[in-house]
Structures are given as C-alpha cells and as structure tokens.
Fold this protein.
Amino acid sequence: MKLKHLESLLGRLQQFSNPKVELEQYPTGPHIASRMLYTAENSFGDVSDKVVADFGCGCGTLGVAAALLGAEHVIGIDVDPESLELASLNAEELELDIDYIHCNIKNLGLRAEVVDTVVMNPPFGTKKKGADMDFLSVALKVASQAVYSLHKTSTRNHVKRAALQHLNASSAEVICELRYDLPQMYMFHKKREVDIAVDLWRFVPQSRI
Amino acid sequence: MRLLTHNMLSSNIKGVTNGFPLRIEAEKVVEKQVDLNIDFLKNMFPKIEWKALVSASRTMGYAELPEEVEPSKLDSEEFLRKFHHALLELHLEEGALVCPETGRRFPVSKGIPNMLLHEDEV
C-alpha cells in the first residue's frame, strides 16, 4: 500500500467528539500515523505478518494503520470505554478484524514473547507526570521486536536515558522529528492551533533469550 | 476477542501469582473467516501455551485440537487449518474471563474484555 493511500484511509476515521483532558486524549492525525506505521513496515519489517499492540489506542488510528499494512493480529488497549467503542466502529468500517482490551496500561497482564511490535502515541505526561514513561516501561516488557512511540522533542535526552538505563531497551533511536498539529480541543489552549515538535522513536527491547 | 489474545492475557490482580490462563465463560461465540497464513502459524506455534488454547477452544465449542502436539504436526495442512481456526477465527463475543486464582470475573461485552482493576486490586 502506498503512503498516500494509507494516509487517506486513516483520514476517514472518526475522531473523539468529547476528548477527556485528564487522559490527554489527542488524536494521532493521519499524517503522523501513516508515516509512523509506513516506516515501521518499510524500513524495519515490523508490521506485516506480525502481532502488533496499540497502547492507549484511543479511536484506534495506529492499530488500524497496522492492520491495513498487513499485521496478522492487532490488539488495541485503552482505559476509556468510549474510545474503544469508537475504535471498534472505525475498524468495522474498514472491515478490519482488531481485538480491543479495556485496561489501564499500567495494570496490563500481557505475557511477553507473543507481541512482536508495540505502537503508541502515549499521553505526553503533561497532565499526569510520568504517564509516557509508564507506557514505555510496559511496552518494552511486552514487545519482542520493537516499540514505536511519539514523545515531545523537548524530552529527547530524558527519554533516551530512561529507556536505556532504567527500562532495559537495548537501543533507542529517533527516526524522525514530526510536527504535531494540535487543533484547539480544550479550553486551556489559548492559541487556536498549537504546533509542537515530536520525535518518532524506535526502541528495541533486550532479548529475553 | 480471538483466542490468540486470550492466550497472552492474564489476571494482574495484586497478590495473584499465576493469573494465567483466564477461564472462559462463553455466552456468545462468533466465527469470522480469516485467510490462512501458514508462515505466521509456524512462527507462532512455539510461542503458544498449547494447553490453554485447547481448553479455551473447547469451552468455545470447538473440540478439534489434540491435547498433545508434536512439532512435526506443523507439516500437516489439516492440523494447521484447525490451529488457525482456533487461534484466529473464534471470537468470544459475550461472556467473561475468570481469574484462575481468585475467581474474579472480568466481563466481556461486544467482544471487549474489561480488565480494569478496582482500587484495592492494584
């Protein structure tokens, strides 16, 4: 599938109508989501025929992108039931078979080894400090091949240090820097549109063998 | 929810030492056809907890999987088709997953298991 086609399919997905600020629900736009999964597939072979988990899937964009690129089994996990309902509808609309689990990522009991790749756009941790690192910690325990994640560029050094020193990653590389167009979704956003720099990371977990 | 998801999911309640496999209470099971992907199945086979898959598929009304299985079986297309069906085509639509240690029920509704823990369980 071509990148443009992937992006246009993702553009049809329904987004949150009532985003919950405490969960930092910002949708992963089709531009970023398509590039993230396209790179994972075409540069690293981490998607097609793989088991992919989407942590904090929200309305399901990253998981849908993985399924469109040929992942054999996709699991979306979120703490918010309304998001999961929307994600199910989005998957159904595109005739994709995706499993969803209603769970807090921190308390997720998912045994290691079976999931190849974790993709996620975690809460950036601005409302709940450390939320992004909690996600990354669980992701690196669950994934056997790679974790793809978005983090604010301003936290680059911190993310790298935490991943390598505390979360057992064997490598942590920024693949590219993206602009995150954040439409004004919440009252506390003063400007109409906020444009922040985010890094697309690829983490490799330590081999468990 | 497919049985592949069930095969990796466990109860993570505080104090539980072995929350796997979750017992299935099946109220409604649906089947959705998926194309056979032999390479995927061969690659997945060594990662599967076989006993859990056999017992889960039986609870879901599918009794075709053998209790014990030798890796040589992977050369048989007939076996692979059964493995494929159990792993990827059977869906638990309504029912519950039950923690094997505490008996705590995690309800499954519209195919989505609710694994949220209460405050006193984390």
